[in-house]
Amino acid sequence: MTLPRDFYDRPTLDVARELLGAVLVHRHGSVVTSGVIVEVEAYIGESDPACHAARGRTTRNAPLYGAPGLSYVYLNYGIHSLVNAVTESEGHPAAVLIRALAPLDGMAIMRRRRLREMKGRRTASGGQLDDASLCRGPGNLTMAMGITLEEHQLDLSGVRLFVEPGGMPVREIAWGPRIGIRVGTEQPWRGWIAGHPAVSAHQRSG
DNA sequence: CGTTCGATGCACT
DNA sequence: GTGCATCGAACGT
Description:
Elements: H1 12-19, E1 23-28, E2 31-44, H2 62-65, E3 71-76, E4 80-86, E5 94-103, H3 107-117, H4 138-145, E6 161-164, E7 173-176, E8 190-193
The protein binds a DNA duplex through β3, β4 and α4.
């Protein structure tokens, strides 16, 4: 079962909460990668200074104003593709950023992609990557899953990049300030599964 | 613990 | 030209 389009046509914080514990799946040819969503952030409307729509509609952020249930992928810092799910009805720009996954399928290729990206660089751990680290962080998870700008504007209820509910039981959800932004930090719009080892940025408890 | 820094692409000013 | 919804290493305290 795949979450339908109208799942995303709702208040963004509701969508964000219910994405926790669901499974993000990427089919790239015959290669399938997936993982349980354990960390998300909500970006809601033009009044949210951290939302890409904060300064009105542009060609870049137009998909945020469009149909809910599509992917919104953009390149950040010239290096990382970040993947969002567009939420709320047309004309209401909002999205949920997927920040971390607990890997399920394709862990071998995830590890290969992550290590290839780190090639040439010295690593403190000698190039070790435990399972919980494969998709920890929004840039790391897209690297591991092979999500690029080619996955921009895909139907999340389709067959290539989609979400299935019920990946794991969610005992406790914690909420706190969003990470890595310079404005809008007063809103507790980062949600994560309390205590999960794949959550990024040291804040795993609530 | 903390801050700083380089790598890198694109949209916007 | 500036500014990022990043990452990991390096170095200071």
